[in-house]
Structure formats: C-alpha cells, structure tokens
Write a structure and sequence with these properties.
Layout lengths: L16 H8 L1 H16 L6 H22 L15 H11 L9 H17 L11 H9 L2 H16 L10 H16 L14 H5 L4 H7 L3 E4 L1 H10 L7 E5 L5 H15 L5 E6 L12 H10 L8 H16 L3 E5 L12 H4 L1 H8 L3 E5 H8 L11 H4 L11 E6 L11 H10 L4 H4 L4 E6 L3
Enzyme class: hydrolase
InterPro entries: ARMT-1-like_metal-bd_sf, ARMT1, ARMT1-like_metal-bd
Family: Belongs to the damage-control phosphatase family. Sugar phosphate phosphatase III subfamily.
Length: 445
C-alpha cells in the first residue's frame, strides 16, 4: 500500500480514537481554558482593562465549545495578523465541507488549537498568555518522586562515572543507551513502572539484559539495535548535532533534557538542538517559556524537597544551555495542520536543516501521527514506507520515540504479532492506551 492509497483517520470513523476524542475531549479542553482565563482574570493584581478583555475571550471560547458540542461546520479562520491564516483556509477549502465530528482528525485537532490562539492573537492584553501553564505546572509538581528518582539515577550512573565513555565496556555502554532511550520513551509514564531501573553495577556486570528485555516487551516496533549500529558506525563524524522535536512540557521535558545531557556526556552528540512550539499547542507541548519554567521548578525546594541529587544535577544542566551546547529553536511548521509528508513543499528550509542533522528524534504521539500522515496503514507496513517522502532516500535520519495513543501504528514485524497484540489488548487497545510503544528508526538512505 503506497502513501496515496492510505486514508487519514477521520473523527467520524466508528470505534476510532479520533471519534472518541472529538466527542468527549475537545469540549472539555475548551472549558478548561475558559476556567483558567477566568481564574487568572479574577486575581487582585489584574487591571480592569485586562479583566474586561478576558470576558470577551471567554465568550469567543464558549462559541468554539458550542460549535464542537453541536457538531457545527468548520469555517474559515478570520485574519489575526499572522501569515499562516491563508494556508489554514486553503487546506480547509481543499478538504471540503466538514464538521467537528466529521473531519480529518489531524486537521480538526490542529484547527482547534489555532482557533484558540487566534482569539488570543486578536486581543490586546492576552497575546502571550499560556492558557495551559497552570495545568502544566500542576502536573509537573505531582511527578516529584519520579523526578527525584531519575536525578539520583543520572548522577549515580552517568554523571559520576566514566562508563559512558569507557572504551572497554562496549556492551555496558549499549545497555546504558537502551536504558536512557527508554527513559525518554516512557517520559510521560511518571510511575516509571515500565523501566528496567538498572544500577551502575548491573550495567558494568551486564546483569541488566534480562531486566531490559522484560521492559521492552511492550515496544511493538523496536529498532534500538539499528540506531545503536548507526551511532557506532558514524562515531568518527566531526559534527554530530542531534535535533529533538519535543512533545510534552514538565516531567517528559525533564527526561528529554536528561537524555540530551547523556547523549553529550557519552560523546554520542557534539551538540543538541531542541525544537519547541511557537505557541500553546495540544495542551502540554513545550513552548519557549517552558524551558526556564523547568529550571525554576527544579530549583524550588518547595516543589522538589529531595535536593541531594537535584542540587548536583541542575547546575550541570544549566551549564549545557548557557554554553550553547544545548540550544532551542521554534519553527512555524510545527504548529501547522500539515503532516510531515508536506515538509518538502511547505518547509523546504527546515527539511534542509534536518537533512544536515546527525539524528532527528521525534518525541510523542502527535509527531508520530504527523510522520505517518495519521494514516490508517496496516500495522505491518514498514516505518520507512509510512514516512513517505521522509523515508527512503530522504537524507533524514529519523528516530521516533512514541507511546501509542492514537489510531495509527506501523512497523509491527508480522501479522501473527498483530494478532497476538489484539488478543492481549482487544479492540485495538494496544494502539491507543499508552501502555505500548514504538522505537522506530529510519536512516533515510
């Protein structure tokens, strides 16, 4: 099955995650934003003009919510002074007549977040307001135990040893790579129950193999060996910039920064570039202000009272940012409704940058949906095929780390494996419940 033959999932598809999301989740997200703006506007230090404008914003948001609940047609976006509005309306026209619960899921969901941002862009006092900050902060603080455990593990295994660069410990270095990659993979599972939890001794004595194999049983497409082989084969390259297209703020972003630090400490990368979203997107995606917010939270003994390892770790991480070894960037393409199959025509400069990258790591479910055009591929379709123009001969080395939370999943080795997964997690639950994952790699050759 080629790219042209594969249909994207629609919010009207019976039994789909798309349908469930459109019917039960979107209106709740909008209501959460209305409540958040109301709470912010009610604070004593908010001036009258800002408070008055918040009422108009809440009314506009209620209109969106009502439209979702009543399944009204998606309509052209009014101009808000931003250059991308024309592209949104052009794509909407290409789709044709559609409504909230009868539209391509990827477009409809992106359209909802752009509608929210259009309202804020059109305001005077709320243009730079993060409607999800309160929620992101609250969720991060609740991950206290996981943050403190990972800080401890990082200090003990990576930062305070030479294991990462010890030439005589090749197998141990590989186990450490797998362990750190899985921490980044399961970065939104704050109980860490799916990790092997290896000690330095486990790694050095190679006793971690069994624990790692057990933790990997829920990874339905696992290309870790292929990634490691690529990294070992190219270790002599002078410039090894790794790009990470981020997903969630908070705990997952903390694991991403740890992963970036490890890749640098291990000599795998010479520099790291983190890609954030330009404005609040899909509730919890990282935006530029979340970078400093991460450090403010980690440095707060009120948020994280277990300071022993954090006080050693945080200065090391800050130094990586301050020295420019880790940088952040935002490209407007990440907040468009386009799948990444459209990158060659819609963002050729960005594509060129990624082709020049040593490795591009895409985090999370939305990035995976965009990589695969959110298509209803047979699950045994190869990852390379589903990548379309970013697959064979693209020149982009792509690693996707994604827990399965939508309708698309490719790269499962055999149909018998798919059958076993359907028996183990009936009704396609293994594609949607977040307890299964993929580590999918394609070298773009």
């Amino acid at each position: 099955m080629n790219v042209q033959e594969v249909r994207a999932v629609w919010t009207s598809d019976k039994g789909s995650m798309a349908k469930q999301t459109a019917e039960t989740r979107w209106a709740k997200i909008i209501q959460g934003i209305i409540d958040d703006i109301g709470e912010t506007a009610a604070a004593e230090d908010v001036d009258c003009q800002r408070r008055a404008e918040s009422i108009a914003i809440q009314i506009a948001l209620k209109d969106i919510k009502k439209g979702i609940e009543q399944n009204k047609p998606l309509t052209r976006l009014p101009d808000d002074g931003k250059l991308d509005i024309q592209e949104w309306n052009k794509q909407l026209a290409a789709i044709g007549e559609c409504s909230w619960t009868n539209c391509p899921w990827l477009f409809g969901e992106c359209y909802m977040y752009r509608c929210i941002q259009r309202i804020l862009n059109s305001s005077k006092y709320w243009q730079n307001y993060d409607v999800f900050k309160r929620q992101k902060d609250s969720t991060f603080v609740k991950s206290r135990a996981a943050v403190e455990e990972l800080a401890s593990r990082y200090i003990q295994i990576v930062a305070d040893t030479q294991l990462a660069q010890n030439e005589s410990k090749e197998e141990a270095k590989k186990l450490l790579f797998i362990e750190m990659t899985e921490i980044a993979l399961w970065g939104n599972a704050t109980d860490l129950s799916l990790l092997a939890n290896l000690t330095l001794e486990d790694l050095q004595n190679l006793q971690g193999r069994e624990a790692i194999q057990k933790s990997q049983r829920n990874i339905v497409d696992n290309d870790t060996d292929d990634v490691w082989a690529y990294l070992q084969r190219t270790v002599g390259q002078a410039s090894r910039q790794i790009d990470v297209v981020l997903d969630n703020a908070g705990f997952e972003f903390f694991t991403d920064v740890l992963y970036a630090a490890y890749l640098l400490e291990a000599g795998i990368a010479t520099s790291i570039r983190l890609h954030t979203k330009e404005f609040p997107w899909f509730v919890s995606d990282v935006i530029p202000s979340d970078v400093e917010s991460l450090f403010e939270h980690l440095e707060s003994s009120e948020c994280f009272p277990g300071r022993k390892c954090l006080d050693q770790l945080i200065p090391r991480l800050r130094k990586l940012f301050q020295s420019g070894v880790i940088t952040t960037t935002s490209d407007p393409f990440w907040t468009t409704p386009f799948s990444f199959h459209e990158m060659p025509s819609k963002a050729p400069a960005l594509l060129k940058e990624l082709q020049n990258s040593y490795l591009v790591i895409f985090k999370g479910d939305l990035n995976y949906r965009k990589l695969t055009r959110d298509g209803l591929w047979p699950h045994t379709t190869t990852y390379e095929t589903a990548l379309g123009p970013l697959g064979r001969e693209s020149g982009v080395r792509i690693l996707a780390l994604r827990t399965n939370k939508s309708d698309v999943c490719v790269g499962v080795p055999t149909q018998s494996k798919v059958d076993a997964l359907n028996e183990e997690a009936p009704g396609g639950a293994w594609v949607r419940n977040g307890k299964y994952a993929v580590v999918s790699f394609n070298e773009g050759r």
